[in-house]
Write a structure and sequence with these properties.
Helices cover 5% and strands 53% of the residues. By secondary structure, the chain is mostly beta strands.
Length: 171
């Protein structure tokens, strides 16, 4: 249900050998860097996750310690997509997320399934409180939960605080 698969690709800059490793994931964690001091969008997290990075490794092919170009892509998106926004390095002024997202450009293969998701729950925090918002499919209404109560709320009112955990469901 929550499992997806990532393809990690590394290429030796000397011998051009390519290694592919496939790993299951339960959630995506997006660390925020200073370049997003004013605003961080969920798509920024996907783009940063996918970017090629230059690292040094011992190449299994040429047996030298050399630079590698590393990148990753989602090859099998999960039915439910859980995203953690990590504020440990930096906290932007504003975090933007969409009620519906399309991650097609971040997926490496076509499994004949939609890569569009809609948000069904998320957790956010203010300076003094934590809140969870949940979508009820049966009555098609949003609810807000805090430490001691819950109530129905309008979609326009659900952007309270800084979201740090988002749960999306594939359409």
């Amino acid at each position: 249900m929550f499992f997806g698969t990532y393809e990690y690709k590394t290429q030796c800059k000397l011998c051009k050998n390519i290694t592919l490793v496939f790993k299951k994931f339960k959630f995506l964690s997006f660390g925020i860097s200073k370049q997003y001091k004013n605003e961080f969008n969920i798509y920024n997290g996907f783009e940063d996750n996918e970017k090629a990075k230059s690292l040094s490794y011992l190449c299994n092919n040429c047996r030298r310690f050399c630079e590698f170009e590393c990148s990753n892509k989602i090859v099998e998106p999960p039915k439910e997509l859980l995203i953690n926004i990590n504020f440990s390095r930096f906290k932007p002024s504003k975090i933007v997320f969409d009620m519906k997202i399309d991650i097609n450009k971040f997926v490496n293969a076509d499994f004949g399934k939609s890569n569009e998701y809609r948000i069904i729950s998320f957790c956010s925090k203010t300076e003094s409180n934590y809140f969870t918002y949940c979508w009820n499919k049966d009555n098609e209404k949003w609810y807000i939960f805090d430490d001691s109560s819950f109530k129905e709320c309008d979609e326009k009112d659900i952007y309270l605080g800084d979201p740090y955990l988002l749960l999306y469901e594939r359409l």
